[in-house]
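INPUT
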Amino acid sequence: MRVVFLGAPGVGKGTQAERVVAHYQIAKISTGDLLRAAVRNKTSLGLEAKGHMDEGRLVPDSVVIGLVKEKLTEIPKPKEFILDGFPRTVPQAEALAEVLDGKGIPLDRVINFRVSREEIIKRLSGRRSCPKCQATYHIDFAPPKSDDSCDRCGEILVQRSDDQREAIEMRLKVYEEQTAPLISFYEQRRLLSHLNGAESVEDVYQELMRTLSVYQTA
Ligand code: AMP
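OUTPUT
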């Protein structure tokens, strides 16, 4: 199974990707997670990416494409993966197609998660995460047991700098301008399935599993 999860920030791609990879025991390549780890570890990549990320802008294509190419060579079962948050621009999608075609492992499917703008803003602005173990919460939909600390490790929760109002607006604008064109890109290549991401996490997961069941891993 080789699948891309496409959609605006906050549609639930990451949450669903976690569950699907746990079920199928395949790799998840999330460029957002990889970039945040690079920022935390203060690598040269992280230092380059941080400013773009804090403002809600995209990290340059060349940087992200290099990162994904590297990851694709590292994963244990390189023929099966979910890409979460990549590609986000047409040049990224073209580079991905070239790499995968070169390896003889083209994409099976692209899942486009759809959620209204209003709901996305609600989800992102209430999101909190643990700076230590990376667990995520939502102040209304998935609150931690105690007021503001992590259920798993007790660390004080934080809001991602790009989940603040101004950065959210920028991320949605960037999505419309640079990522939404991938819907027709993949529609033309007959790879796209739409998914209503506005339902509960469980309902979206069940629908997703039905869609993916035809691409069962060996
Ligand atoms: P995410 O967690 O997927 O919302 O990503 C967080 C941030 O990381 C984005 O707002 C971008 O700044 C950066 N980022 C993640 N994936 C990409 C990508 N494919 N291309 C460019 N920037 C990315």
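end of record. The mean pLDDT is 92.
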